[in-house]
Every structure is written in structure tokens, then in C-alpha cells.
Request: fold
Amino acid sequence: MNTEQRPGLVTAIAFMTLASGIINLFWGFVASATVLSSFFGIICLPITILPTILGAFEIVYAAKLLSAQPQPVQPSTSIAIFEILTAFFLNVFSLVVGVIVLVFYNDVIVKDYFARLNTTHKMDTAPTAESTPEPLPEITPEAPTDSETEILTPPEKPKRPRKPAK
Reply:
């Protein structure tokens, strides 16, 4: 994958996700600090931490996309959906980024890039045989002996005389 370049849309997805992650980190810290000013806010503190957690996931995902050695990653539609859901925290920037990223994931060039990236990595990590195994000696069937033919052939039934019909 070193000779191939990353498509522009994938780079745009990475930079937008990185920017959204940084904004979500600050948004979560500011919301948490604001909420700590009242008793009711302390109860709601776990809800205000959610943008911070999303921001951390966005930064890690963007770092994987922007790395010099491409890592096998799938298009993260779940991060894009969570970016859209940050509208509940009045974060319009992440809402817009989430929608744009979902549109970019449906582009043919982006789908092909992720497919190539993941299949190339699977081929690179496949175990290689250091030496080829020696072939087994051929086994040729031998002609059965007389004792074996007696065992193999079923014994004949003794013939009974017919009874006359009445």
C-alpha cells in the first residue's frame, strides 16, 4: 500500500473527524465544568462526559486514517452517527461533520479504498510456509490372499428342498 495514495475524500474524512474530535473534547470539558456548578448538574455529569468520550474515539480513528503506514480500518459509520447525535448537546459542527462523513462513505472511490486496504492487509499477514512438506509414499493395494478372500466373500446359503404345495 505504500505506492498507492490515499484518496482525497478519505483524507477529508480523517481531517474532519480529527477536528470534530478536538471540538468534542473541549465541548465535553466545558459542559462538565458548567454542570458542576449546581447539585442537579452533578447528577447529570455522566451525560456531559459523553462528548468527551466520543472525541477520544474520533481522534484515535482519525489517527489511524492519517498514519503513514495505512492500518486496516473499516468505515466507521457508528462514529458518524454519534457525531450526528451530538446535536442533543447543541454541537452543530459535529452534526454537520457526521452528515458529510456518511455521504463520503457512500462514494465508490472511498468504498474501493477501504476494500483494498483491508484485503491487502489480510494478504500481508497470511502465514507463509517456510518449507514444503515432503510427499507421503504411495500406497499400492496388494492382491488379497486366499484367507482374505474367504473373509471378504459371504458364505453361500444352504439350499433347502421345496415343499410340495397342498
Residues 8-122 form one domain. The radius of gyration is 35 Å. Residues 8-35 form the longest helix (28 residues).
